[in-house]
Automatic annotation (TrEMBL):
Signal peptide: none annotated. Pfam families: Glyco_hydro_11. The active site is at E91, E163. It is an enzyme of class 3 (hydrolase). This is Endo-1,4-beta-xylanase. Gene3D superfamilies: 2.60.120.180. It catalyses: Endohydrolysis of (1->4)-beta-D-xylosidic linkages in xylans. The lineage of its organism: Eukaryota, Fungi, Dikarya, Ascomycota, Pezizomycotina. One of its GO terms (biological process) is xylan catabolic process. Keywords: Carbohydrate metabolism, Glycosidase, Hydrolase, Polysaccharide degradation, Xylan degradation. Pathway: Glycan degradation; xylan degradation. Residues 5-176 form the GH11 domain. Belongs to the glycosyl hydrolase 11 (cellulase G) family. GO terms for molecular function: endo-1,4-beta-xylanase activity.
Length: 180
C-alpha cells in the first residue's frame, strides 16, 4: 500500500459548505473537499482524526446525507453529525454509524476544544440501528438534551463528519442542503 501524507488541519468554506478538518498528525491520512457538499477521507492506522462538511453556524435542521463509510476490519471510527456550541461550550455527537467501539460505553478525550484548553461538556446520541445515509432532524436531539438538563449554547459549526482513532478506512460522504 502506498504511504499517504497527512492533510494539514484547516477549516473554512468550500463550494458553498463549511468544512472542518483536524488530525493529531499520527496517521497517514488524506482529507479532500469534493464538489458541493461532498468530501472524502482515506486514513491509515495510527492516530486521531475528524472532519467533514456542513454549516457555520449550525442550527436545528433536517440534514440529508449519503455515501460510503468503510472502516477496515470494523475499526474504531464514527460517522456522525458533529458540532460545537459556545456559552456553554459543548461538543456534540449524533452518531449515525460506528465500528468496533461503541462510544456509549465510555468517553475519552479526543481533541482540544474550539476555545483552546477550556473545559467543556460532550453530549452523545447513538443510533440503535447503524446506517450510512438518511435524514437527521438535529432539532429533536437539541430539544432532548435541553429537556434532560444538558443546555446548548450559541451554535458554532456543525458538520457530517468522519472520525477515526487508531484505525484505517475510507469514506466518501455527500451532505445535501436541507430544505428551508
Amino acid at each position: 500500500m502506498r504511504r499517504q501524507g497527512i492533510t494539514a488541519n484547516s477549516a473554512g468554506t468550500h463550494d458553498g459548505y463549511y468544512y472542518s478538518w483536524w488530525s493529531d498528525g499520527a496517521s497517514p491520512v488524506t482529507y479532500t473537499n469534493l464538489a458541493g457538499g461532498s468530501y472524502s477521507v482515506d486514513w491509515q492506522s495510527g492516530g486521531n482524526l475528524v472532519g467533514g462538511k456542513g454549516w457555520s453556524p449550525g442550527s436545528a435542521k433536517n440534514i440529508t446525507y449519503s455515501g460510503t463509510w468503510t472502516p477496515v476490519n470494523n475499526g474504531n471510527a464514527y460517522l456522525t453529525i458533529y458540532g460545537w456550541t459556545k456559552n456553554p461550550l459543548v461538543e456534540y455527537y449524533i452518531i449515525e454509524n460506528y465500528g468496533e467501539y461503541n462510544p456509549g460505553g465510555s468517553a475519552t478525550p479526543r481533541q482540544p476544544s474550539i476555545e483552546g484548553t477550556s473545559t467543556f461538556n460532550q453530549y452523545w446520541a447513538i443510533r440503535t440501528e447503524k446506517r450510512t445515509g438518511g435524514t437527521v432532524d438535529t432539532g429533536v436531539f437539541f430539544d432532548a438534551w435541553t429537556k434532560a438538563g444538558m443546555p446548548l449554547g450559541t451554535h458554532d459549526y456543525m458538520v457530517v463528519a468522519t472520525e477515526a482513532y487508531r484505525s484505517a478506512g475510507s469514506s466518501r460522504i455527500t451532505v445535501e442542503t436541507p430544505l428551508k
